[in-house]
UniProtKB/TrEMBL annotation:
PANTHER family in alphabetical order: ACYL-COENZYME A THIOESTERASE MBLAC2, METALLO-BETA-LACTAMASE DOMAIN-CONTAINING
Keyword Hydrolase: yes
Coiled-coil intervals, chain numbering: none
Domain Metallo-beta-lactamase: start-end pairs: 46-229
Name this polypeptide is given: MBL fold metallo-hydrolase
Cross-referenced InterPro entries: Metallo-B-lactamas (IPR001279), NDM-1-like (IPR050855), RibonucZ/Hydroxyglut_hydro (IPR036866)
Keywords: Hydrolase
A single MF term (Gene Ontology): hydrolase activity
Matches recorded under SMART domains: Lactamase_B (SM00849)
Pfam family, one: Lactamase_B
Length: 278
């Protein structure tokens, strides 16, 4: 159920259709944009990843889909913005679903990236594949470093803060990290599991995790809201805008902490919608 506000017919949450699930496998379309001085977003129709530039190298956060085309799109985007794909050195995953573990196999094989995820989701990824009937989507590379709540991943001049936010998957992680826009520092947050899980207890866990992450985001002065699914944040439009943004125009990802809290409301709305449908 989608509540429509009476002002300008704005929706409170995206309409998540079966077509969006199908579109997650569409490798015919990719786009990308340098949305901060040091943060690149790469997406196909539904699922996106990020490449963060640090003084030590390039860090990929999530990896779209297990297709060489997704890998090629990421490398192509890195080259397009003038970065060097030889500097790829870390792959950090939010959770063990196929649309996030994605094309990591090629990043590992071709760039020898170090891989990061929670231990719980590494097991979950192996034991409960998202597409149980399709072996080509099953776990296909190893995790080098298991992350825990409040870990900090050191990446040269940057630190990535790790938060355990179970619910979407049992070992789902969320991240906060610094970015710069025209040399001005900001703090970005990505909540790992975009959609609520399917049972009431899991939804409660998910909402508790969201509350926890919103509080931690406040402590870290988060003012940038990121998503790993374009349906959640009009991602394709934000990217299209960012591609042609003039330097004197606002960065559409910078929303302030209050904006981040408002944005996070979408996850609660999706959860409440799901509970009311039970
Ligand atoms: Zn997922």
């Amino acid at each position: 159920m989608n509540k429509i506000n009476n002002v300008l017919n704005r929706l409170d949450s995206p309409v998540l259709t079966k077509q969006k699930i199908i579109d997650m496998e569409d490798m015919s379309f990719f786009t990308h944009a340098l949305i901060f001085d040091d943060l690149l977003i790469v997406t196909q129709k539904e699922t996106n990843c990020f490449v963060l530039k640090s003084s030590e190298g390039l860090i990929v956060i999530d990896a779209i889909w297990p297709s060489v085309k997704a890998y090629e799109a990421i490398v192509g985007a890195i080259k397009d913005v003038g970065w060097n794909p030889d500097l790829l050195y870390k792959l950090i995953l939010t959770h063990g679903h196929v649309d996030h573990t994605g094309c990591g196999k090629w990043l590992v094989n071709n760039h020898n990236v170090k891989t990061y995820m929670s231990r719980i989701d590494d097991i979950y990824w192996r034991e409960y594949p998202t597409k149980p009937d399709r072996p080509e989507t099953w776990k296909n590379y190893n995790i080098d470093v298991y992350l825990n709540d409040k870990d900090v991943i050191l990446c040269g001049d940057k630190k990535i803060y790790v938060y355990s936010t179970p619910g979407h998957t049992p070992g789902c992680l969320s991240y906060i990290f610094p970015v710069k826009d025209n040399d001005i520092p900001h703090m970005a947050a990505i909540f790992g599991g975009a959609t609520p899980p399917r049972t009431k207890p899991d939804i409660q866990t998910y909402m508790d995790s969201l509350d926890y992450f919103i509080k931690e985001a406040d402590k870290k002065n988060v003012d940038v809201a990121l998503s790993n699914h374009t349906a959640i944040d009009n991602g394709l439009l934000r990217i299209a805008y960012s591609k042609v943004r003039y330097s004197y125009m606002p960065n559409i990802y910078i929303v302030g902490y209050e904006g981040f809290k408002k944005y996070s409301q979408v996850f609660k709305t999706l959860s409440n919608n799901m509970i009311s449908d039970f």
